[in-house]
């Protein structure tokens, strides 16, 4: 089955959301940030980008369901703080929704100029992301700002969108407004969109372009069997993934390149296009404490769905620390006790990396057997 309409929609929604989040960053004021129940931050950028993407999906594919990170409960409160946040979010989402189409966008299913949505419609669009997930059917998955802490630091973040059909990711798009097109030239042009459709390869385009304006660049993980040439791609935030276990694994593999520490699924884009020193990369995400059923954090599907397809289509393998595939059919998360971290790398070295993970765990007194 071809997913060309879904791909076009997803790229257009992600590009618009990236424009929105970049402009929000420049105008962000302190009281536009909330702290969620899990202590993580959420901004007007997260809410308005989810409203925008969800409204576009609903307009183009009204019967599809959506799993989105954010919900509008805090925006529906009858307080002055809530009212002013709501007004900002509605204005921002409408500004992005009604922007003129760029070359290659299809007027038939874009919302487009003159079609402002009401506040109620946009709050409902955010809450349409409340779907509980599951094994069957077509389901979109939105992380409107992945790496909100990076976003607030003016560092890396990503706007992430995937289409999952019967638990398999079929389309994945990751927009990275602050990522250099060429990581080895950090002062060069910034802003990349990565995209993949299952069976069709992985691609990068500049955020300022669209696939119909300039041909996308096909990207590939470099082939190598020499693990010592690998570059580790790790969370910037040491509370999100263990830097020390990653470093022990890197030593076992003979790695000498320093790790690239970066927020968000931008790491999957860097892995897929071969950033590092030409020897391929490893996305390494292991819990800070506990493992499997005792892990300190349960991974969410929106944090890995598009990245996993990008890696597979660029010639990589993604699994947990036991080598099990990620299961996107268990609900909104990768499953409590079902997922044991995330490890993604080129297919020639994946098995060797898993061997090193096992050894590193053994020396920490942990076992990969299910308790
Ligand atoms: N305690 C945590 N452990 C692991 N990941 C977390 C934790 N808290 C938030 N996250 C999520 O980890 C992702 C950031 O990935 P990375 O660590 O690779 O930069 C984000 O999705 C972030 O949520 P959010 O989307 O709200 O920023
Ligand atoms: Mg968040
Ligand atoms: Mg996220
Ligand atoms: Mg997020």
Automatic annotation (TrEMBL):
Enumerate the catalysed reactions. Answer: adenosine 2',5'-bisphosphate + H2O = AMP + phosphate; 3'-phosphoadenylyl sulfate + H2O = adenosine 5'-phosphosulfate + phosphate; adenosine 3',5'-bisphosphate + H2O = AMP + phosphate
| Biological process according to GO | sulfate assimilation
Q: What is its EC number?
A: 3.1.3.7
As cofactor, the record names: Mg(2+)
The family database entries (InterPro entries) matched by this protein are listed as: DPNP, Inositol_monoP_metal-BS, Inositol_monoP_superfamily, Inositol_monophosphatase-like
SUPFAM superfamilies listed in its UniProt record? Carbohydrate phosphatase
Molecular function per GO: 3'(2'),5'-bisphosphate nucleotidase activity; metal ion binding
What keywords is this UniProt entry annotated with? Answer: Hydrolase, Magnesium, Metal-binding
PROSITE patterns xrefs: IMP_1
Q: Which CDD domains match?
A: PAP_phosphatase
Q: Which Pfam families match?
A: Inositol_P
List of residues binding Mg(2+): 69, 143, 145-146, 303
Q: Which family does the record assign?
A: Belongs to the inositol monophosphatase superfamily.
> Can you name this protein?
3'(2'),5'-bisphosphate nucleotidase
């Amino acid at each position: 089955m071809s997913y060309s309409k879904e791909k076009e929609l997803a790229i257009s929604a992600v590009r618009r959301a990236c424009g929105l989040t970049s402009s929000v960053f420049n105008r962000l004021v302190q009281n536009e940030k909330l702290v969620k129940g899990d202590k993580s931050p959420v901004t007007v950028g997260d809410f308005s980008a989810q409203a925008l993407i969800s409204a576009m999906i609903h307009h183009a594919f009204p019967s599809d369901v959506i799993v989105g990170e954010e919900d509008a409960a805090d925006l529906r409160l009858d307080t002055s703080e809530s009212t002013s946040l709501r007004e900002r979010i509605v204005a921002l989402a409408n500004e992005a929704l009604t922007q003129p189409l760029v070359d290659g966008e299809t007027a038939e299913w874009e919302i487009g100029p003159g079609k402002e949505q009401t506040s109620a419609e946009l709050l409902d669009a955010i809450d349409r992301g409340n779907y509980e997930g599951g094994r069957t059917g077509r389901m979109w998955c939105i992380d409107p700002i992945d790496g909100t802490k990076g976003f607030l630091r003016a560092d890396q973040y990503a706007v992430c969108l995937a289409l999952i059909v019967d638990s398999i990711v079929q389309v994945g798009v990751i927009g990275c407004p602050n990522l250099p097109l060429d990581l080895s030239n950090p002062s060069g042009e910034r802003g990349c969109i990565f995209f993949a459709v299952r069976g069709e390869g992985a691609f990068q385009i500049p955020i300022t372009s669209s696939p119909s304006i300039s041909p996308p660049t096909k990207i590939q993980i470099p082939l190598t069997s020499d693990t010592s040439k690998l570059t580790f791609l790790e969370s910037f935030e040491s509370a999100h993934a263990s830097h020390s276990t990653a470093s022990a694994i890197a030593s076992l593999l003979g790695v000498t390149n320093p790790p690239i520490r970066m927020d968000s699924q931008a790491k999957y884009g860097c892995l897929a296009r071969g950033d590092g020193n030409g020897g391929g990369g490893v996305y390494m995400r292991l819990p800070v404490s506990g493992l499997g059923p005792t892990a300190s954090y349960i991974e969410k599907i929106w944090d890995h769905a598009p990245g996993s397809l990008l890696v597979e289509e660029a010639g990589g393998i993604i699994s947990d620390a036991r080598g099990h595939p990620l299961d996107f059919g268990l609900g909104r998360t990768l499953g409590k006790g079902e997922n044991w971290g995330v490890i993604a790398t080129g297919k020639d070295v994946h098995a060797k990396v898993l061997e090193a993970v096992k050894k590193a765990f053994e020396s920490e007194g942990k076992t990969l057997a299910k308790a």
